C-alpha cells in the first residue's frame, strides 16, 4: 500500500527530460554538423555523470583487489563491491544478495546457466524451449548444449504482430522440456512478453524459466519475486552502466545445486592437487578478479534510474513510443515490424525496398543514429520474411523533437530513392 502511494506520487512528478539530458554529456555533440539524435539505445546506452564519476572515484581513491585484502584500500574495494551486489538485489527485489552473480553481461549469464544448470539437467532427447523472437545470445548457448547432449531446441511461434503464441507455448511444453528461456522484451519488435504468465505455466509443470532481461530493465520495473522466474539476466551497458558488467539472478536452491562454471581464484574453498572444494554463493560462480569498477558503476546506474523512477521512465517512454508510432506511420512506404499490444519503445521498420543499411547511412548524415541489420535475430528475420530491418530504439533521454528529426530524415530518404 505504502509502495503504491509512493508510485502514484512518483508518477505525478513532472518528467524533466531537459535536466536528464544534462546528466549525459555525450548527447551534447554534433555529428556531421547536426545535433546528435541517438536512437540506438537497444544496442547500448549512454552513461550519466553519476556513473562516470563513481567509476572515476573508485579508481582514483579505492582501487584494490577484492575479497582477501588486509589493507584499507582492499577493504574499501571489497565493501563497495558487496554494496553493489546489494544494490542489484534491491533493484530486482531478489530475496538475497547471494542470489546475485556478477557476469560480463546477458550473454555470459545465459552461457553460465546453459553450461551449469543445463549440463546437469539436459540429456539426450530432452528439449529446451525458446521463442522465435530470441536474440542469438539466447539461442546459440542452448544449441551448443543441445549439440553436446543430443537434446533439441524448440521455438515458440509468434504472431505477425510479434506476440508470443501462448496456446502454442502450452502445446510445446511436454515431459521432455527441461528449461524455458525467453526474452522479457524483444530487441527487434519491442514486444513486452507476458513473462509472469509464461513462468506460471512452466512452473505448474515443474519446469524452470530463464528470462533474458537485456531489453527490459532500463524501461520498466522488474521484480523477480513477482515474476517467479528461476533465472533473470541483464547487461549493465544497456541500463546506463559500463560495458563488461552484468547480472545473473538465480534462485538460491538452483544456484547451490548447480555445478561450477569457470574455475580459478575466488571460487574455491580448499585446493589440493587431488581435489578442490568450492566457495559458497555467490563466489562459487565468480572465478578470478571480477569487474569491480564495472559492478560499482552498474550499481550507480541502477541508483540513477531508481531515483528517477522506473514507472515514470516507462510512462514517459510510452508517450514517445505513441508519438513515434503515429508519425512514422505517415512516412510513405514505411512499415513497422512489431505492433504488439504491449510494447517497449523500440521502432523497427522497413521503408519500401530501400536497404536498411542505406537508411542508416543517410540518417547518420542527418545526425540521427539508428541501427540496421538482423539485430542478432536471424531466425526472427526469417520469420518476418525480411533480411534486415532499420531500428530506432529509445531511452529516457530522448525527446519528441528527436523523433520528429528522425521522421524528417526518413522523408528525405524517400526523396533520395524516389
Ligand atoms: N538479449 C537481448 C534481447 C539483447 O538485445 C542483447 C543485446 N543486444 C543481448 C541479449 C546480449 O547482451 P550483451 O551483448 O550485452 O551480452
Sum up the structure in keywords.
Aspartate Aminotransferase, domain 2; Aspartate Aminotransferase, domain 1; 418 residues; globular; seven-stranded mixed beta sheet; alpha/beta; binds 4'-deoxy-4'-aminopyridoxal-5'-phosphate; four-stranded antiparallel beta sheet; 2 domains
Domains, number: 2
Average pLDDT for all residues: 96
| Side-by-side strand order of the widest sheet | 4-10-9-8-7-5-6
- Write out the CATH superfamily name of the largest domain: Type I PLP-dependent aspartate aminotransferase-like (Major domain)
DSSP summary, beta strand count? 17
- What small ligands are held by the chains? 4'-deoxy-4'-aminopyridoxal-5'-phosphate
Structural class: alpha/beta
For the biggest sheet, the summary is:
7 strands, mixed
How large is the count of helical segments?
15
Radius of gyration: 22 Å
Uncertain segments are none
Distance from first to last alpha carbon: 57 Å
Question: What layout of secondary structure does this protein have?
Answer:
Layout: H1 2-12, H2 17-22, E1 30-31, E2 34-35, E3 37-38, H3 49-62, H4 72-92, E4 100-103, H5 106-121, E5 127-131, H6 140-149, E6 152-156, H7 166-172, E7 177-183, H8 195-203, E8 209-212, H9 224-227, E9 231-235, E10 246-250, H10 252-257, E11 268-271, E12 276-278, H11 292-308, H12 310-329, E13 334-337, E14 346-351, H13 356-365, E15 368-369, E16 371-373, H14 378-384, E17 389-393, H15 400-416
Parallel strand pairs: 3-15, 5-6, 5-7, 7-8, 8-9
Antiparallel strand pairs: 1-2, 4-10, 9-10, 11-12, 13-14, 14-17, 16-17
Helix pairs in contact: 3-11, 4-11, 5-6, 12-15
